[in-house]
Amino acid sequence: MHEFGIVERILKTVRERAGERGVTKVKRVRVVLGSLAGVTAESLRLAFEALAPKEDLFRGASLEVESRQARMRCPECGSEREVEFRLPACPECGAGGLKLLSGQELYVDCFEGD
Ligand SMILES: [Zn+2]
After folding, report:
1. pLDDT confidence of residue 1
2. Which residues have CB under 8 Å from 33's CB, separation 6+?
3. Cα 113 from Cα 99, distance rounded (Å)
4. pLDDT tens, position by position, for the chain (114 residues)?
5. Are the C-beta atoms of residues 24 and 57 closer than 8 Å to each other?
6. How far is the CA of 83 from the centre of ligand 1 (A)?
7. Which CATH number fits domain 2-113: 3.30.390.50, 3.30.457.10, 3.40.50.300, 3.30.2320.80?
């Protein structure tokens, strides 16, 4: 499943950073999730809860998801707005080619551990 692959990548990132910092027990992982990243916070949590306990480093760790709403900007009039989905044209002036400023991000913000 899609979200399992994503969580595998999240765990890999944290594993590498934990190794660099000498952390042997991760307690909390915080990720930033854009609303257009293609996966929901709930499915990420479920995948995390399924995968994390398999590894000593992550056993008992919790996943925190910071959701970010997607934003788009119009290249013509410069108006910016939060969007639920990609808009084909600017609602203000009708111009096309709106730029997606954020919404597709999915990355490890930080983690805590000992
Ligand atoms: Zn516009």
Report:
1. 58
2. 39, 41, 44, 65, 66, 67, 68, 105, 106
3. 38
4. 589 999 999 999 999 999 999 999 999 999 999 999 999 999 999 999 999 999 999 999 999 999 999 999 999 999 999 999 999 999 999 999 999 999 999 999 999 999
5. yes
6. 14
7. 3.30.2320.80
Beta sheet of 70-73, edge-to-edge order: 80-83, 70-73, 99-102
What is the rounded distance in angstroms from the CA atom of residue 22 to the CA atom of residue 54? 20
Token pair of 40, please?
A: 């929901």
Measured in angstroms, how far is the CA atom of residue 39 from the centroid of ligand 1? Answer: 29
What pLDDT is attached to residue 38?
93
Question: What is the model's pTM?
Answer: 0.87
CA 51 to centroid of ligand 1, rounded, Å: 44
Q: Look up tokens 């997607």; give the residue.
A: 70
